[in-house]
Amino acid sequence: MDSHAFFTVWILTAIGSCLCQDRAVGEDVEFRLINPPPAPPFIINWYFEGSLICSASAGSVIGVNPSYEGRASLDPNTTTLELRSLALNDTGEYTLRVTMIVGDAEKEWKTTLRVFERISSVTLEANQTELVEFNSSVTLTCSASGSSPSFQWFNNSAEVTGSDRVLLDNRTLTVLNVTRYDNGPYRCNASNIVSFEMSSDVTLTIAYGPDSAIVTVKSEYYSSGDNVTLNCSSESSPAAQLQWALNGTLLDEKGPELRLDPALTSKSGGYSCWAYNSKTQRYKLSSPASITVLERVSDPAITIAGSPDPLIAGKSSVSLTCEAKGSNITRKWMKNGETLSPESGRITFSDDNRTVSISSVQKEDRGEYKCQVSNPISIAEGSGTLIVNYGPEKVKIKGQEAVEFGQQIHLSCSAESVPDCTYTWTLNGTYKIGTGASFFKENSTYEDSGIYTCTAWNSITKETNKTDLELSVKGNACSYNRYLSSVTHYDSNFQFLDRAVLA
After folding, report:
1. For the CA atoms of 359, 360, 363, 366, what is the dihedral angle to 10 degrees?
2. For residue 360, what is the domain's CATH number?
3. Which InterPro entries match (predicted)?
């Protein structure tokens, strides 16, 4: 037996039935009865399409068709026929006729053999491989040697199925209006009943885009002198050509990166990027990215201007103006640490918050004012103190309302006033007895009884205000002298002095 593959065909016992067998060119086949006879038949004849292949009688082979010489073998005991080195023309119907004993009727069995040439030399070609998305169509053709090839198509590893856009015609695949996802790689599998072979890959180059152009930048705001880098990206194949524009006007700068080194305030604006694909002949413009180059805020200062000056509560108006260096400045006002808000009809702000105007200033308006100046890249603060002169108000006398004859009189006067006011003391409305915030007398007499008046005067507001305290001196001089004789005084020189002597 040679090196060819060997197969067995079992012939059905029913006359007229057929078991089809498929073999490849060069292979061997064996035709065998399913239930061979218990004893060698008297006569055996094998036919192919009606032509005798070989014969046997009484257990011996008596003849082989010369065209099968060396290729056909017959076992006269089992009726088995072996054919070697099959060729395409071996395809057809095979018939076995036997006579078991002399005079017996002839019996017949049939089967069919199909011989195929193996698939080989599978090639795949495209009518074009450089395509433009949505504009181009492509036809791929698969060729193969061998018997009755059929074709199966693959895009990457997925089998290709037909659709409105994908047309399959066995050995050809047509893709209409290609998209970027149709690039492959494509392969075709050629096969028949006995073999298959896969083609090499074909990959399409599909130009697409630019779908979009996107400008990115780290921040919107920068300080003058900073180094700023903008980047433009676009989904495109081949890579898009990129050119920059500022506020809609094309710049000379090209490429995916734009550097502002250093950034100047004049470079502020909306930066956009044009993307162009030379294969698709398509353009795309990005949305603008805003860049604002600012001068840092510095040297904030508050200027206070009042009329009349100095400021007097209820009579003066004042404006506080906040000045600072820098660009795109916003201002926020605070008073005594709290946000300053407008007050209907009295406290108003200019449109840019630069100036706060206060009409008919009140004492409550006095205090420390701060102006916080800022822009998106910096912040600073200036301060100023607003002095509002007012008063005197709420004049009060603190002291005794009654003393014993000869005792000390000690009174003090206070008032709310800016600046501090001066005080004058009078007794019973006519007699001036002193100045200053305090009145003191060592030894009281009956003449010290009466109404004490403290008059407060503000030198700026030119306003006066006063209040009274009625004081009475009680007791008599005799009792006072006896009191003094019993009292000693320890003075600063550590000497005991008789109070009576001092009196």
Report:
1. 20
2. 2.60.40.10
3. Ig-like_dom (IPR007110), Ig-like_dom_sf (IPR036179), Ig-like_fold (IPR013783), Ig_sub (IPR003599), Ig_sub2 (IPR003598), IgSF_CEA-related (IPR052598)
